[in-house]
Amino acid sequence: MRTRPAGIGNVNADWMGLLPSKLSAMPLKYLAVPGSHDSFTFWVDVHAPVGPDQKTYVKYLVTMFSVLAKKFMVKWSMTQNLTFREQLDAGIRYFDLRVSSKPGEAGNEIYFIHGLFGHKVRDGLLEINSFLCRHKKEVVFLDFNHYYAMDSEHHVYLIEMLQEVFGSKLCSDCAVENITLNYLWEKKYQVIVFYHHPSAQGIPVMWPGNKIPAPWANTTEPNKLIQFLETTLKERKKQGSFHVTQAILTPTVNTVAKGLVWGLRDYLVERNLPIIMSWVQTQRPGVDGVNIITSDFVELTDFANIVIKLNNLLLSESEHKAR
């Protein structure tokens, strides 16, 4: 059994339920919500084949290093250390999910994927549902945004799985402006699923991907990332969608080659996190502000706490207006 990383507790396990009434009455699109990037990569299967999602730099590793490739791939495929349960306890409420079948495997089983295969999707969903059953006022965003080696039968299997696991907790698609915590609590909804594929059209509890845009900077440089995030926040749609600020850096083939033995965390993330988190701390939620913010290795800083505390700015704004 995995041991919980030092310093990680359940201090934010009920943060949504503990928000002041002024905030629970606001549309969720105006609140600051912490999320994780490639949320499921806390475990990958080094014994399974390389995933069908493999990118150029993964192919480069496999070609150049053959039998050693997977050892290095683990270092560059993993973007989180915490399990779903640990992320939830820490306050993470948005999950970035990429899924795939295993080519050649009988049946329709679906797995999480990021270069290497992760856990079965069903196991992850059950873990999330178990948390929600114990924390009735907490709400999660599940963003299924990449699919690999999946035909129509696989999509039907996954959509039915989501409905089976979460049942009446699933929030039906509606105007984003109507979604407040008060509304969700009244309806006993705890899960908003975004399904970026035509297979989900016409299914009320599957929200379309265009209601949760997540602009991607695709850079290794923190200053370029911050410039991009500020630009896309200014361009954020006024109506009809949530918004994901991806506060993440993306390795190139050259980055991987130079930092091969160190991996994503040691070579790219840790050294640049202070700059990125300093920017996050200066942000404001609300109209034209941040909404969902995602990070790699959410336990490396006080990430979730920092994002959650941004909501206090909304309280001070409302008090100022009341004077």
TrEMBL record:
Keywords: Hydrolase, Lipid degradation, Lipid metabolism, Transducer. One of its GO terms (biological process) is lipid catabolic process. The keyword Metal-binding does not apply. It comes from the Eukaryota. Residues 27-196 form the Phosphatidylinositol-specific phospholipase C X domain. The keyword Metal-binding does not apply. Pfam families: PI-PLC-X (PF00388). GO terms for molecular function: phosphoric diester hydrolase activity. This is Phosphatidylinositol-specific phospholipase C, X domain containing 2. It comes from Cyprinodon variegatus (Sheepshead minnow).
